[in-house]
Amino acid sequence: MSLPRLERLPRAGLTLACVFALANCAELERQGRLFSPTPTPSPEKAAAPKTDNRASVQHKELVAQFGGEYQAPTAERYLDAILAKLAQASDTPGQAAYKVTILNTPVVNAFALPSGNLYVTRGLLALASDASEAAAVMAHEIAHVTLRHSALRAEKEREAAVISQAATVIQNRQKGEEERSKQRLSVASFSRQQELDADEAGVKVIARAGYDPYGAARFLTALGRSSELRQSLYGKRKDSMGFDIMSTHPSTPERVARAVAVARQIGAPGIGQRDRNGYLAAINGLAFGDDPMEGYVRDRKFTHPRMRFTFVAPEGFLLENSSEAVFGVRQADNEALRLDTVRSPNFESLEAYLSSGWVDGLLASTVRKLEINGLPAVTAVARAGEWNFRIAVIQSGEYLYRLIFAARSLTEEAEKRFDDSILSFRRITPEEAREAHTLKITVVSAGLGDTAESLAAQMTTPNRPLEYFRLLNGLDQNESVSPAERYKIVTE
Contact, 315 vs 299, CB < 8 A? Predict the structure, then answer.
């Protein structure tokens, strides 16, 4: 939950039907789009006369979009050394050398620009387990640039638009819609094939650079496991959060199978360098999870040191911080919540703001004015379709904080849980704000008596530490830890 993004949230027109597509909103925000197409600048930026200026603008926009640069000199040097080897092994060894920028976000993502800038998030570095996996990600992104995928995709999209428009003019509106659907499928298929092509090119390059070609398959497997863990935590069904036919990326199992097949053409498992110890040493101490200054979750408590507030979600809720809001779900009881903020609009009172039209189904008779820990506030109930809502708007300085709880059945017990959570909202002191600290990746060596369970017990995570321990270290469900082997844990 970052202030710059929240300032741009709409001040009105916020419908409850949109607010409580919570599970999907939270998941899409956190997952990002791994191996996404090279970002395209806006038309105004694309028209800039100097390529160097355009690259600089793109760099600044991307860094700002993903939380700014994360300073980790040791990790940067390690990744740049990998990039130097990839450059020598690439199909175009004479091209400009790439340089890595680490982005300050837990989202798992990476991308490269033709300018020679390559970006990886610290969330991706936490998920990777060795040098070959990191190399596979970077080689994949460089392959997108080398194969001109962004330009080819843009050309394909322009062709599809022309064909669709012609079909509408020549035939009729219904035929035009059918043609548009066909062209969208064609572009999606084209994009998915580009992902597979970049996977294949990346595997071949890392093998020529001396790395284990099976690193790509291992990382894609970890990515799939990460997605499944998040789905299980937040109640997502695989069919609702999986890759559908319109996805620009093929499903992770398909990519894993293709990556393994390409690696087998090169050699049997066990070839190439993995350098797990070197990689773990490079990322030891790397920040993990949310940047605390942009708000962080500890169990059911959310705290935002920079905006100086905290609140506690009801029992059983899992909280998820994103750049636009805090989301929460309670799996067993089909309940959800959202907290966001806007600059205080020009209304005579909080009651007037609450009734100004951004809430659908508001029951005017339930609007109540009160004070919450010294802050002026209003609460109300709303109903829309099968959902019931408990709403609070709290004013603190120049901002309004909007807490919205949803339940299919707003029982007296549920309403009390929601009210208790609303009443927990308070300002924090400067001392409390200064106490905020980042979770970090800590590399430890397993002792003779250690197990996955004993190492996971040292983890500081909101939930399921054992599953996160296995995920971060690439361990299967029944795989044991090995004495003296080094492992990632999350600590404060």
Answer: no
Query: Contact 24/30 with Cβ under 8 angstroms?
Result: no
- C-alpha 380/C-alpha 370 separation (Å) is 11
Question: Tens of pLDDT along 58-110?
Answer: 788 888 888 889 999 999 999 999 999 998 887 766 555 789 999 998 888 88
DSSP at 313: P
Q: Is the dihedral of CA 95, 101, 106, 107 positive or negative?
A: negative
Strand 99-103 to 117-121 pairing: parallel
Grouping H, G, I as helix, E, B as strand and the rest as coil, residue 337 is strand
Neighbouring CB atoms inside 10 A of 44's CB total: 8
User: The whole model's pTM is what?
Assistant: 0.71
Give strand pairing partners of 380: 391
Residue with tokens 């926009």: 61
pLDDT in tens, 251-289: 578 889 999 999 999 999 999 999 999 999 999 999 998
How far is Cα 415 from Cα 367, in angstroms, rounded to an integer?
14
State the maximum Cα–Cα separation within the chain, in Å, rounded to a whole number. 76
d(CA 488, CA 39): 32
**What pairs with residue 327 in β-bridges?**
320, 338
Name the token pair of 378.
Answer: 């209003």
CB 272 within 8 Å of CB 133: no
- In angstroms, the CA 410 to CA 387 distance is 8
Query: In the β-sheet with 287-288, what is the strand arrangement from edge to edge?
Result: 287-288, 439-445, 486-491
C-alpha gyration radius of the chain: 25
Q: Measured between alpha carbons, how far is 150 from 156 in angstroms, rounded to an integer?
A: 10
- Domains along the sequence of the chain with CATH: 68-285 (no CATH), 439-491 (3.10.350)
Which DSSP symbol is given to 97?
Answer: P
- Among residues 23, 217, 208, 240, which one has the least CA distance to residue 130? 217
Q: State the alpha helices, DSSP H only, in 50-89.
A: 51-65, 73-89
How far is C-alpha 316 from the geometric centre of its chain's CA atoms? 23
Give the C-alpha separation, 218 to 101, whole Å: 23
Cβ(213)–Cβ(206) below 8 Å: yes
From the list 338, 382, 349, the residue with the least C-alpha distance to 364 is: 382
